Amino acid sequence: MTGAKIADVKAVEAALAKSRLFERLSPDARTRLAQAGSIVSLQMRERLFSKGDDGDAVFVILEGEVEVRASSEGGRDVRIAALGAGAVIGEMAALDGGPRSADVDAARRCRLLRIPRDSVISALVEQPLALIELVAEMSRRLREADAALEDAAFLDLGGRLARLLLREAGDGASIALTQVEIARRIGASREKVNRKLHDWADEGFVSLGRSGIKIERRGALEKLIDERRAR
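Above: the chain sequence. Below: its structure as C-alpha cells.
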C-alpha cells in the first residue's frame, strides 16, 4: 500500500461529489476534505486494513473495487460486500474512532482517498445532512453484513452459490465471474464450485459458456435456497 499527496485536487473534489455521503457537503467542505487527504494505491488482493486496526481515517474509492470480509461464528471467511467507485469505507471510524470491524482487501487495482478522522468529523458537524446520510449508510451496511453472515451460517455451498448467482444475474445477462472469483466470494474451493456448476448444468438449472454462466431456471435455484434454510 502506498500513499501520496494529491496532484489534482479538482479531480478528487469531483469524485467526492459523486459519493452518496460527501455529495451532501458544500463545495467548500469537499475542497477542504480533498486538501486534507492523501492518495492510497492498492494492487489486487492487497489489504487496505484489517479487523482490529485503528480507525483513524475514512477512505473514499476513486477507482477500482474492494471487498469487505469477516468471519462467521463457525470460522468461515465471509464476503460481506463489494464496494466500487464513490463508496466510503471505514465510516464507523468517523463516529467513534474505534478499531476496524472487518478486513478490507482490493478486489482489483484501486486508488482511494484517505481522509483523517478529525477532518471528516469537522465536516459532518458543520453539515448535519451528511451526518444523517452517514448513519443511513451504516444501517445499510449492517443489514448487508447480517445477511451475509446468516447465509454463511445457514446455507451450504449449494445455497451460497445459488444466492450469488441470483444476485449477480441482474437483468438476465450472463454472469462473467470466473470460478476462482466465485469460489473466493462464497468461501469454497474452485473444484467444488466447478463440480456444482456442472451438476446444475446437467439438471438444466444453468448453462455454461464462453460468455459466462447463465441462469436457465431461476425458480429452481430459489427453491434450493429455501430448502437449505429449512434444514
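The chain has two domains: 2-153, 156-230.
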